[in-house]
Design goal:
Structural class: alpha/beta
Shape: elongated
Number of helices: 19
Order of helices and strands: HHHHHHHHHHEHEHHHEHEHEHHEEEEH
Number of strands: 9
Distance between the termini: 66 Å
């Protein structure tokens, strides 16, 4: 069957249009200014005939060097590089210019050449998919994800809109500012559900990669789920409407995550439910209320373990097409697999980090990824637990995360009270990097029983005054410390 498929592909001549290729090149030789319109559309690789590839490459090379693009200069350029005969010779170049009816049609013919090239690229991709499909050792899920990703990459490979003028950009920005001024929504991005974080960032912004980093057991998953729910549900106080959200969990199962969501949203003790304790009547009411509230949101959970970056991007694209998702969350980054195996773990993490940033830009939505911190922060905490804070250098396994991220939030270590382990406690959140704003820290209140983060209560002026006398105590204000106060 494979031999028959290969033979069928060989029998068919790949789609191409020699006439359109000649017309596009002739338009350039007849009127060099037409290259300004054709260059954004075509690449040399888009031409099917080798001679045409060489001629077009010579035209673009001359244009890049600031030299005139005409029949004589193109001929000389090819001759200097010993390519004139391969390009058809002087007579063929002259015939191209003579057969061009009008340079105004050059852009039209260039579009035909480009479309034929895309069809050929799709044929090659499908051929590779067929060949790969005969590999019996390949996982079906990986094969399907890679196949879809390959096809979508061909569909997205466009060269006709790679730049825009500042004039167009300014008009768009002014329009957006006007819409914001007229809107009741105070946020420019997605609602985080946390007043201080919203003030700092204006919400989670489009095309941004946001990293939430912490040591194990500090609440990364809890904060990620809280952000997902806060973005997905309507917030009447902030006059914000909920949006569809995708949550990729490589660590916890769908059942575990759903249980956490119900307990967090309904203020039900998670530990009691895990131990099989019988909920009270009030707790049952809270669970039903939370189930009804969560049922109105659009939160899509994928709990596939060891997901590759290619598979995640493919599934995110699919969810955006079907459900119009507006945010992706990944828990957590170091558990993902790279598209290509590498001898260096740092290179693998760098590839995953770049892939997540590319996904944010491609889909135009915020991508929030959890990440582990190394043990250095714990060593510093032992030396001085009151002042130790995580730093960018604590990001585990790769500095590429720091480079790719637009916003990095770090959850400081917070030990429970030995006498009252379920007592709510203030947790410092360090803003270690903010590409479009200030860095520093703010506080959230953590509710251990419900694995939930909420806005920190306003500081008590009397207690704050007493604590100010103790230089070893951390600040009680929801804002303070870091490089710059907010």
């Amino acid at each position: 069957m494979k031999n028959e498929a290969d033979a069928a592909l060989l029998r068919n001549v790949p789609p191409h249009s020699p006439d359109a290729e000649q017309a596009a090149l002739g338009a350039i030789l007849l009127d060099p200014d037409s290259l300004l319109n054709i260059a954004p559309i075509l690449r040399a690789e888009d031409f099917y005939l080798p001679a045409h590839k060489l001629i077009y490459a010579a035209c673009t090379a001359l244009a890049d060097a600031g030299a005139p693009v005409d029949l004589l200069s193109v001929k000389n350029h090819l001759q200097e590089h010993d390519l004139l005969d391969k390009a058809g010779g002087p007579y063929y170049l002259t015939s191209l210019a003579e057969t061009a009816v009008s340079s105004f049609r050059g852009e039209y013919h260039a579009a035909i050449v480009r479309d034929k090239a895309r069809v050929r690229a799709m044929i090659r991709t499908c051929s590779e998919i067929i060949t790969e499909g005969y590999d019996s050792g390949l996982e079906v899920s990986d094969f399907l994800d890679r196949s879809e990703s390959a096809i979508l990459s061909v569909a997205d490979s466009r060269t006709d809109h790679f730049h825009r003028s500042v004039k167009e950009s300014v008009s768009d920005v002014l329009r957006e500012i006007t819409e914001r001024a007229q809107s009741d929504n105070p946020l420019t991005g997605l609602n985080t559900g946390y007043h201080r974080l919203n003030d700092l960032t204006g919400g989670l912004q489009k095309a941004n990669l946001i990293i939430i980093a912490a040591r194990p057991g500090m609440g990364k998953t809890a904060l990620a789920l809280n952000l997902a729910v806060n973005a997905a549900k309507d917030d009447d106080k902030r006059r914000v409407q909920g949006v569809p959200v995708a949550f990729f969990s490589l660590e916890m199962s769908l059942v575990e995550l759903t249980q956490r969501l119900l307990c967090s949203e309904g203020n039900v003790n998670l530990n009691s439910m895990r131990r099989g304790g019988k909920p009270s009547n009030d707790e049952w009411e809270n669970i039903r209320w939370a189930a009804d509230r969560l049922g109105k949101t659009k939160i899509f959970i994928d709990d596939t373990p060891a997901l590759s970056i290619d598979a995640l991007r493919s599934r995110a694209r699919r969810l955006q097409r079907k459900e119009n998702i507006r945010m992706v969350l990944v828990d957590y980054l170091q558990l993902m697999r790279p598209a290509h195996q590498s001898y260096s773990r740092e290179q693998e993490i760098a590839e995953i980090s770049r892939g997540l940033k590319a996904l944010a830009k491609e889909l135009g939505i915020p991508v929030v990824a959890m990440a582990q911190l190394n043990r250095e922060v714990e060593k510093r905490a032992k030396e001085n637990p009151l002042t130790a804070r995580p730093q960018l250098s604590d990001l585990r396994e790769s500095g590429a995360i720091e480079q790719d991220a637009d916003l990095i939030l770090m959850i400081s270590s917070h030990a429970p009270n030995e006498e009252e382990p379920n007592k709510p406690r203030l947790v410092p959140i360090v803003v270690a990097k903010h590409r479009n704003g200030s860095t520093g820290e703010f506080y959230l209140q953590y509710l251990p029983s419900y694995t939930r983060f909420i806005d920190a209560p306003p500081p008590d002026p009397g207690k704050a005054k007493d604590k100010a006398k103790d230089k070893k105590a951390p600040p009680l204000s929801p804002v303070g410390g870091g490089d710059q106060d907010f």
